[in-house]
Amino acid sequence: MAFELRSPDFTANTPIPERNVFAGFGCTGGNQSPTLSWSEPPAGTRSLAATVYDPDAPTGSGWWHWVVFNLPVQTRALPAGAGDPAKPALPAGAVQSRTDFGGPGYGGPCPPQGDTPHRYIVTVHALKVESLPLPADASGAMVGFNLNAATIAKATLTARYGR
């Protein structure tokens, strides 16, 4: 069985709804992290991580919109709004680290006005380690480096947003 990621909020290559768009930088969305669910990860999975990344951001290195790691292996979904660091919606032990907005938690899409729609790659990583040995304020790039070393499978969903 394939490791698959789903969201009732959007499907592959469709626009991200306004409720998931950033509230700031000229965008007026709801900044709510999307509902995510995934199938059984492959054998050997010991923990999970979820990321939202924009490779089209005009930074030279993309933009990390959400970075969550140390999700317990039995986790199969994250509810809408789980990316709000002020609300206890993530499973115990999960860590939301620093995004490119400068702090923890979900920050929705808000590409520059006039850019072609950007891709937002939502990924759930099945990891061969029980936890990533990183501080809570680790950057998206640092988490990404550790994810690449520990990932045994990925489930991805790519949506788009432009303004």
Plain-language structure description:
It is a single chain. The protein has 163 residues and is mostly beta strands. Helix content is 7%, strand content 32%. The chain is built from one helix and ten strands; from the N terminus they run E-E-E-E-E-E-E-E-E-H-E. The longest helix is centred in the last third of the chain and has 11 residues, at 140-150.
Topology:
Layout: E1 5-6, E2 23-24, E3 27-28, E4 36-38, E5 47-54, E6 63-72, E7 77-78, E8 95-96, E9 118-127, H1 140-150, E10 151-161
Antiparallel strand pairs: 1-4, 2-3, 4-7, 5-6, 5-9, 6-8, 9-10
Main features:
3-stranded antiparallel β-sheet; 163 residues; 1 helix; mainly beta
C-alpha termini separation: 37 Å
Please identify the structural class as seen in this structure.
Answer: mainly beta
Identify the strand order in the major beta sheet: 8-6-5-9-10
Low-confidence stretches: none
Count of individual beta strands:
10
What percentage of the residues does DSSP assign to strands (E)?
A: 25-35%
Estimate the global geometry from the Cα principal axes. Answer: globular
How many alpha or pi helices?
Answer: 1
Oligomer: single chain
Radius of gyration (Å) = 15 Å
Overall mean pLDDT stands at: 96
Give a brief description.
Helix content is 7%, strand content 32%. It has 163 residues and is mostly beta strands.
